[in-house]
C-alpha cells in the first residue's frame, strides 16, 4: 500500500484530541483570469509558469509536480482522502496539477478555485509551525511569480471571503467525549460570532465522521496573519479544555463502568466484524481511539488508529488490491484489514 502521508502517521502536540493542523494560502497570478473564468490556454499558461518554479522550492526539500489529468483515478482519490487536495480538485482534472513534497505534508494545488493553494499539514496542534512553513513557500514562489495583489485589500482571490491575507488556518479535532455527552453544539455553536467556522472531516460542505471536526478562521480581510493564528489558538485552547473535562467526567467512578462497556463493545465489533461500512468503521474507530487515549484499552501503537481512519477509505482499499471493487467487497476487505491490524497491535 502507498505510504500514508506523514502528518497522519506521526503524533504531535495535544495529539490525543488534535489530529492535525493545516495552513492554506490562496494566490493568483497577475493578469490571468481566475480558474473559473480562464480559457484552456490561460490555464495551461498557469501550469507552465508554476512547473517552471518548482525547482526553486528544493531548498525546503524534494518536491514533485504532478498533472491531475495524467494520474490514475484512485491516486487522485487517495490524495483527497489524505486531505492533500480538495474533493473538488478531483473533478474535471484536465489543466489542474498538484505539487507534493517527499513527506506529503506540503501540497500546492494548481488551478483549483484559485491558481495556487499552498497547504501545509502538521500532526497535532502546530498552527505556528504550519504557518511559518507555508509563509516560506509563499515567499520562494513570490520571488519568481507575479501574484495578484492590491495595496488596499491585499491578495486577490476567486472567492471574496478569502481576499486579504488569503490565509485559512484550521485545526482538526477529535471530540468523542463532547459528542457522547451531547455538548458539541454548546461548545462549538457560538464560534461563528467570533469569525470562526466549524466543518466536517473534509472541510466545507462535508459531514462529520468519526467525531472529527475542523475549526478554521473565516476572516481574512482587516486582520494580519499573526492575529489570525493567535485568534484560532485561543479558541483551540477552549475546545481542548472542554473535551478534557468531558473525558474526565466519563471516567468518574459512578459512570466509569458504563463508559468502559461502551468502548469495549466498539472494540469487540471492530475485532470481530466480517463486514463493515466506512461510516460505521469511522464511528467505532473513534470510540476505540478514545478508549486508548483514556488508558482504558491498550494498543502498542497509539498512532495506529489515525492511520486506520485513512486506510479504510474506499480509494485506499482499492489501491491496496490493485483494482476497483464493488461496495460489498470493500466492506468485507475493510473489516478484514481492521481485524488483522488490531490483532497485530493488541
Class of the largest domain, according to the CATH hierarchy? Alpha Beta
Q: How much helicity do the residues have?
A: 40-55%
Major β-sheet profile: 8 strands, antiparallel
Rg calculated over all Cα atoms: 21 Å
Please tell me the overall pLDDT: 92
The fold-level CATH name of the largest domain is Creatine Kinase, Chain A, domain 2
Helical/strand content category: alpha+beta
Count of alpha/pi helices: 13
Based on Cα principal axes, name the global outline. globular
Ranges where pLDDT stays below 50 over 5 or more residues in a row are none
CATH superfamily of the largest domain: Glutamine synthetase/guanido kinase, catalytic domain
The tally of beta strands, per DSSP, is: 10
Query: How many separate structural domains?
Result: 2
Q: First CA to last CA: what distance? A: 22 Å
Order of helices and strands: HEHEHHEEEHEEEHHEEHHHHHH
CATH architecture of the largest domain: 2-Layer Sandwich
Secondary-structure topology with pairs:
Elements: H1 6-9, E1 18-27, H2 40-53, E2 63-67, H3 73-81, H4 87-90, E3 97-101, E4 106-110, E5 116-123, H5 127-142, E6 149-150, E7 154-155, E8 167-174, H6 176-180, H7 184-188, E9 196-199, E10 212-217, H8 225-250, H9 256-272, H10 278-293, H11 304-311, H12 314-321, H13 327-345
Antiparallel strand pairs: 1-5, 1-8, 2-3, 3-4, 4-5, 6-7, 8-10, 9-10
Helix pairs in contact: 3-12, 9-10, 10-11
Amino acid at each position: 500500500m502507498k505510504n500514508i502521508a506523514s502528518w497522519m502517521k506521526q503524533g504531535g502536540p495535544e495529539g490525543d484530541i488534535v489530529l492535525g493542523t493545516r495552513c492554506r494560502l490562496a494566490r493568483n497570478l497577475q493578469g490571468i483570469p481566475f480558474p473559473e473564468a480562464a480559457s484552456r490556454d490561460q490555464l495551461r499558461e498557469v501550469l507552465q509558469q508554476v512547473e517552471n518554479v518548482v525547482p526553486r522550492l528544493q531548498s525546503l526539500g524534494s518536491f514533485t509536480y504532478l498533472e491531475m489529468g495524467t494520474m490514475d483515478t484512485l491516486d487522485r482519490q487517495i490524495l483527497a482522502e489524505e486531505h492533500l487536495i480538495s474533493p473538488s480538485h478531483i473533478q474535471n482534472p484536465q489543466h489542474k496539477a498538484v505539487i507534493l513534497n517527499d513527506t506529503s505534508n506540503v501540497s500546492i494545488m494548481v488551478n483549483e478555485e484559485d491558481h495556487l493553494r499552498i497547504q501545509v499539514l502538521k500532526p497535532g496542534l502546530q498552527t505556528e509551525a504550519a504557518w511559518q512553513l507555508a509563509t516560506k513557500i509563499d515567499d520562494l514562489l513570490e520571488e519568481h511569480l507575479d501574484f495578484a495583489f492590491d495595496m488596499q485589500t491585499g491578495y486577490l482571490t476567486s472567492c471574496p471571503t478569502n481576499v486579504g491575507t488569503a490565509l485559512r488556518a484550521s485545526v482538526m479535532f477529535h471530540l468523542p467525549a463532547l459528542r457522547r455527552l451531547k455538548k458539541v453544539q454548546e461548545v462549538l455553536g457560538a464560534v461563528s460570532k467570533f469569525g470562526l467556522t466549524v466543518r466536517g472531516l473534509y472541510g466545507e460542505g462535508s459531514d462529520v465522521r468519526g467525531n472529527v471536526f475542523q475549526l478554521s478562521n473565516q476572516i481574512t480581510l482587516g486582520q494580519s496573519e499573526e492575529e489570525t493564528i493567535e485568534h484560532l489558538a485561543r479558541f483551540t485552547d477552549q475546545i481542548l479544555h472542554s473535551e478534557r473535562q468531558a473525558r474526565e467526567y466519563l471516567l468518574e467512578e459512578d459512570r466509569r463502568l458504563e463508559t468502559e462497556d461502551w468502548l469495549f463493545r466498539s472494540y469487540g465489533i471492530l475485532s470481530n466484524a466480517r463486514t463493515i461500512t466506512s461510516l460505521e468503521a469511522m464511528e467505532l474507530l473513534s470510540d476505540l481511539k478514545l478508549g486508548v487515549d483514556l488508558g482504558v484499552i491498550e494498543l502498542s501503537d497509539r498512532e495506529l488508529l489515525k492511520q486506520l481512519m485513512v486506510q479504510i477509505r474506499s480509494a485506499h482499499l482499492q489501491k491496496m488490491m490493485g483494482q476497483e471493487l464493488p461496495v460489498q467487497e470493500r466492506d468485507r476487505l475493510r473489516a478484514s484489514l481492521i481485524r488483522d491490524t488490531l490483532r497485530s497491535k493488541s
